[in-house]
DNA sequence: CTTAGGG
DNA sequence: CCCTAAG
């Protein structure tokens, strides 16, 4: 009767390979190629462009194959029960379906993993020379982990098995974490997919290799985190942080220089086989095609203009569905995952201080850590950088004499998420849960960070040229990162947003939260890993700042019905998990405060207008009326905002903080407030009197 | 679930 | 924003 087992999935950020589509789109529209005229393209513009595409474009993307895909997916998972669940889920409309359509699910990823592996081995002809080796090499603990989890999920394996796997995983673990990319799928071809993932991986690996020398810690292997107990099983799935910088596409076999390598030397083939064989044999037998048919995934097979072969990078279109109905929201609200206070990993917290004349941050490692720090923190168990690291195999293609700089962002990584879901939950719910988590993050607001030559470029007004990004710059020096945007993101980054979007603000990073209360209940302990790796890393990374923990904000806002809590979780080392007791079982640990999203003027405007019309006692209606598709604004939020608005309107302008609200709006606030207060007073007067009369 | 308020 | 008491 009890949900004895729970599966916890921690995503150290799965990669969202969104780019090809966006990139193409950008290119098509000439955005990316914007001419670097006299002033050159301002980095800010670039950011805005990327962010805009990423966040907004998806909305219009129709998807007609969602259901089909979903079924296919279901097919992959053989387990009848699962299938049923899947089908059921499929029937659920709207949002759920949307989720399917987006192909954002773990299960998918997982199920595909095996396939990928196999494919790799089976597809010798893959063009990419690098693939063969790197790919195998790349099979990392992450992959293993995922598979493992997948397996469990699918088959409901016992925790014991998991343990076994985990151990295996550990042994085999290698340094690559780009597994997620592997999951990219297209109905069209296995190869492509594989190739893609491989490449992606390769690049990552390369990055790893490259950075390993510099930042060894970062690349330390992350053992899969696995905790088992009678009651629940928690798996932390994470991908290795991608290097925060982009590396040129690697065409040659890349040698992994990771430390992990040594350990995982044999990993190449090994990891795959194990998983494949043990975990999801059936899965792999299935035609890949079926698995993958998502409109949102596009392959970018074409070689670019310059003739550079684009590894078929697939893109996933990620977007936040703004049309989610209120009801849906409500339901989501039902499963509020708790947020806990996080420690600040302030990699960027010092940003302001770092503003340098040239606009480039002086801290060299800083960004690299976008990933690194994230991972490091994760490993340390401290906090995770919410920052998503991005990396891109991005490379630019230059053309002689052409002043344009072309960027190709292979993929963005989503901040790590932690999912805690009952074993008996349906796959559909798992999918939804993850989708919601991802959606919360993506929809909640992201901003793009630019890292160039290992430094974060903070000056948005600087031109690419001034920054040093010219057509002939080193291709490997540019990277982009997704960072939670503390500022309202609903609006496209525009001129007025500059200040908001700038890196000046301390980015809020998702943190991984160790042991949620559930864990406690289950008796499972999540260890906080202080593993050397993590520690050293963190030290290394955060030398300048962040000695103190800072609050992390959960990017997630909702949880699906079955899931208990979604919290950003830093990857925890398996070892740590296995033995370490929870720090403080306080629920606070499992709870994360929602990310702060200051109301924009336009939102205030909408709010004021709605309240003028509806009054101050009908927040739900106000929500419906003016913020129906702002999933992150609850009626309570609106009510609170109104409260603060009233307060703001009453204080002197000098005392006001934050984005200034037009006085006109404040006046309306006061007027409306006065009016409705009066109305309310009348109501109250009336009621009592009547009552009184009756008596 | 909504409201209303305090924290 | 969170948390809660109340309805």
From TrEMBL:
SMART domains tied to this protein? SANT
State the UniProt keywords alphabetically. Answer: DNA-binding, Nucleus
Q: Where is the composition biased (Polar residues)?
A: 265-275, 350-368, 514-527
Q: Spell out the PROSITE patterns in the cross-references.
A: HTH_MYB, MYB_LIKE
Name the domain of life this protein comes from.
Answer: Eukaryota
Question: Is Transmembrane helix one of the keywords?
Answer: no
Its GO biological process annotations read:
green leaf volatile biosynthetic process
**Compositionally biased intervals (Low complexity):** 372-381
Domain HTH myb-type, residue spans = 591-650
Pull one GO CC term from this UniProt entry: nucleus
Span list, region Disordered: 259-285, 350-381, 511-548
State the coiled-coil residue ranges. none
Give the protein name, as stated in the record: Telomere repeat-binding protein 5
What organism is this sequence from? Solanum stoloniferum
| Lineage start | Eukaryota, Viridiplantae, Streptophyta, Embryophyta, Tracheophyta
